[in-house]
Design a protein that fits this description.
With 122 residues, this protein is an alpha+beta fold. It is 39% helix and 16% strand. A hairpin with a 3-residue loop joins strand 1 and strand 2.
Length: 122
């Protein structure tokens, strides 16, 4: 009757190590929740461009529009002065919302670059 030998006793972590483990896990979870919250906050309630003024800018033959993932470039088709303006939109505002406001500057010969901030937060 050979019985299986008892496993060696498990070494118990000290109380300080357990507390540090709980604190580290809690901080990790808190960080994950904060990041998810910021991402959700940045995407909800973004002010969009008004359709009519935006359509007027897009239809304006005097303005050449280039749109990529980093910026919107509004350039005059003729009469470019060589001047430029880099515009950084406000937080939680669609960059296209500023196109109509800045179109007058473009018509005067200045190239305008409207940046697209990461997560709609400038």
């Amino acid at each position: 009757m050979d019985a299986d030998p008892a496993p060696p006793p498990r070494r118990r972590r000290s109380r300080a190590a357990r507390i540090i483990g709980w604190i580290a896990a809690s901080l990790g979870i808190l960080l994950i929740v904060a990041v998810i919250g910021i991402v959700i906050y940045s995407q909800v309630g973004v002010m969009a461009a008004e359709p009519e003024p935006l359509a007027a800018v897009k239809a304006d033959p005097a303005i050449a529009i280039t749109d990529d993932s980093a910026a919107i470039v509004l350039a005059p088709v003729e009469g470019e002065t060589g001047d430029g303006l880099v515009f950084i939109p406000g937080a939680k505002v669609d960059p296209w919302a500023y196109a109509a406001k800045l179109s007058g500057i473009v018509e005067s010969g200045t190239t305008v670059v409207i940046t697209k901030p990461w997560l709609n937060l400038a």
